[in-house]
Amino acid sequence: ELKNLWKMCRRRWWLILIPPAIVLGLTYPALLNPPGGAFTTTIHITAAQPLAGSEETYEDASYFPWLAAEQLIDALTMWARTSTFAEEVRLAMAGEGIDLPPRALLGAFAADNSQMVMRLIITWPDAAELEAIARAAVGVLKNRNETYFPPLVGNPAEVIGLDEPVLSPVAPPLLTRYRPLVQIALALAVGLGLAA
User: Fold this and answer.
1) DSSP 53
2) What contacts 69, CB < 8 A, 6 or more positions away?
3) How far apart are the two ends of the chain, measured CA to CA in Å?
4) Structural contact between residues 45 and 139, judged by C-beta atoms closer than 8 angstroms
């Protein structure tokens, strides 16, 4: 059986190599210039709403402010995942002279929280733009929160960034890196199928 396969390959080698040669010609630029990765940063944020009055009618004076702060962080975390937050950040960046297309930032943000600390994760292909996006995102959380949360109207939340954005490179996905090699291997399989 293997001898017959080898004879077939020797007789029709040109037919086996045509598909991989075509695919190699098409993917050669991707092999020479592999795609670059992106950059990511994580910003830790906390927030609270200043108390309106000082008369405390409950036994534990610290319980309700801490509970309210946790709920506020929950709300800000949910907002950071929405299209309105992405659009507010895009508009803030436009005010700084960095113009991004509408809806460009939709997939750039991920947010999570644990009790009173929000984690805002931002991923973007350009490092300089990512720094500007991070600054704008924290600014939007600080300055635009009362626009989107009715209980904060007239008494906006105080939002504090706990750390400065630190950019880290992110490698491109494995499929992106190995796509040309997978395409060449599939073309070789097609060539073997044609020769059979």
Assistant:
1) -
2) 46, 47, 48, 49, 116
3) 13
4) no
Q: What are phi and psi of 125, to 5 degrees?
A: -75, -20
The distance of Cα 153 from the centroid of its chain, to the nearest Å, equals 30
Beta bridge partners of 124: 39
For residues 169 and 38, give the distance between their C-alpha atoms in angstroms, rounded to a whole number: 6
pTM: 0.72
158-188 pLDDT, tens digit per residue, is: 999 999 989 998 877 777 778 888 888 999 8
Q: Is 103 left (phi over 0), alpha (psi -120 to 50) or beta?
A: left
What is the chain's Cα-based Rg?
A: 27
Give the tokens for residue 71: 């709920």
Q: How far is CA 5 from CA 10, 19, 159, in A?
A: 9, 19, 70
Kindly compute the dihedral angle of the four CA atoms of residues 91, 93, 96, 101, in this order, to the nearest 10 degrees: -80
